[in-house]
């Protein structure tokens, strides 16, 4: 007992006890603190999804089904992802006024961004899909505008015009103008392929490619100053090239035909 008492009174005993206490405290914190934070995040996400389902039942279920499975009036939303919801609802295309339209146009947004986030969280819970992009993904930092122009002209200009002013398609459909569309919504459109547009996942157009395209569109549509060369052909409307061809091309052919017929008739009289 005497030997044990001496050891307990050793000058380093207090230091050893303090170190053991600190080690135990650190271990307990590492074991329990992350779990608490994860549980709090999970609870917050569950509440967001719950509120999103309430909004969905009121504004979307009549067309897309009570569980997002789709119906004769609307496609399935399982697997479309949060990005699709953020684009469709954030541009006012959804809720659609009627399912009989050739194409749903952009219009006034009916939901706040917080409500859109809740709807997106609920739809994302139905199946994995593209997530809402971050500002780092679509921001101009590090973008190559020249490369973006090449990619846009190769993949997008056939429908949207080479500066994104839009164009006509078949059966009453059209490629909308991209002027005034936010970079986030342009990125989401490329991700999800809304309506008639094909989707461009990262395997087709990388995240950097999408950033470059958005930077190009911001560059060509950022200034509202008048074109120094006058009104460009694409500024007259989505079918301006065809209109130009009909008026001047066909008109010129008719004029030539009339002139040839008149010369032939005059020669016969002579």
Concise overview:
With 270 residues, this protein is mostly helical. It contains eleven helices and two strands; from the N terminus they run H-H-H-H-H-H-H-H-E-E-H-H-H.
Molecular structure report:
With about 270 residues, the protein is mainly α. Helix content is about 60%, strand content about 0%. Strands 1-2 form a two-stranded antiparallel sheet. A hairpin with a 5-residue loop joins strand 1 (about 165-170) and strand 2 (about 175). It starts with a helix and ends with a helix. The mean pLDDT is about 85.
Would you tell me the overall average pLDDT?
Answer: 83
Please work out how many helical segments DSSP would assign: 11
> What about the largest sheet?
2 strands, antiparallel
Instruction: Sketch the topology as an H/E string, one letter per element.
Output: HHHHHHHHEEHHH
DSSP helix fraction: 55-70%
Q: Structural class given helices, strands, pairing?
A: mainly alpha
Number of strands: 2
Determine the strand fraction and express it as a percent band.
Answer: under 5%
Residue runs with pLDDT of under 50 for 5 or more positions? none
- What general form does the structure show? elongated
Query: Which value, in Å, is the CA radius of gyration?
Result: 32 Å
Q: Alpha-carbon distance between the termini? A: 147 Å
The largest beta-sheet arranges its strands as 1-2
């Amino acid at each position: 007992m005497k030997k044990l008492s001496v050891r307990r009174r050793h000058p380093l005993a207090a230091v050893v006890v303090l170190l053991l206490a600190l080690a135990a405290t650190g271990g307990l914190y590492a074991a329990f603190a992350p779990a608490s934070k994860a549980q709090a995040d999970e609870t917050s996400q569950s509440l967001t999804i719950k509120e999103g389902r309430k909004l969905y039942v009121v504004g979307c279920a009549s067309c897309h089904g009570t569980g997002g499975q789709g119906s004769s009036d609307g496609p399935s939303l399982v697997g479309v992802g949060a990005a699709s919801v953020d684009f469709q609802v954030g541009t006012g295309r959804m809720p659609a006024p009627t399912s009989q339209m050739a194409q749903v146009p952009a219009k006034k947004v009916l939901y706040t961004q917080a409500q859109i986030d809740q709807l997106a969280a609920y739809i994302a819970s139905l199946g994995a899909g593209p997530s809402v992009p971050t500002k780092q993904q679509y921001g101009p930092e590090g973008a190559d505008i020249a490369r973006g122009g090449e990619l846009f002209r190769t993949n997008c200009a056939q429908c949207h015009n080479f500066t994104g002013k839009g164009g006509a398609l078949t059966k009453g459909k059209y490629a909308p103008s991209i002027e005034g569309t936010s970079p986030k919504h342009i990125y989401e459109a490329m991700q999800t392929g809304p309506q008639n547009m094909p989707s461009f996942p990262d395997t087709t157009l990388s995240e950097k490619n999408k950033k470059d395209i958005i930077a190009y569109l911001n560059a060509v549509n950022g200034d509202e100053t008048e074109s120094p060369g006058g009104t460009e052909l694409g500024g007259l409307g989505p079918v301006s090239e065809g209109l130009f061809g009909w008026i001047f091309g066909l008109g010129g052919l008719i004029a030539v035909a009339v002139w040839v017929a008149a010369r032939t008739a005059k020669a016969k009289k002579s």
